[in-house]
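Lab notes, practical 5.
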Amino acid sequence: MRYSTKNNTCNPNRNQSSASFLFNDFLGDVAVAMKNMEKNQNVNSPSIRTNIQEVENGFSFSMALPGVTKDQISLDINDTILKLSVAPRTEEDHKKYSFKEFDYSGAKRSFKLSKAIDVSTVSAEMTDGILTITMSKKPAFVPKSITIK
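Output from the prediction step:
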């Protein structure tokens, strides 16, 4: 029995083999997914998935960059903006894909940091496709009493 998502009905009377239906369903699903990706996001500008965690004295950013080496990554801080970019591919990719969901070549992401961050403490490490950026908070202001002479 074939279930159609188009009109939510079952169609037991079909002339094609079940293998043919499965293949057509798969290609139809791929086409729908590709159309949705094109509508909802720019396929040429991949999003870098990021987790941000507040730790005891600062913050830790973990970014998923599978297949990217540390030499391909540029990380800069200008005032309170943290910018990450992945270098675009220099050689032409001759592989032909039927469907391609990830390619971080040329990806960019930026974050506005709080003024409470001590930018001199920012460090980064790349391990197993995860870029981890850590930074410390500036010491809290402690009120001081001034004696008059």
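Observations recorded by the TA: The first strand starts at residue 2 and ends at 4. The chain has two domains: 2-40, 50-90+103-137.
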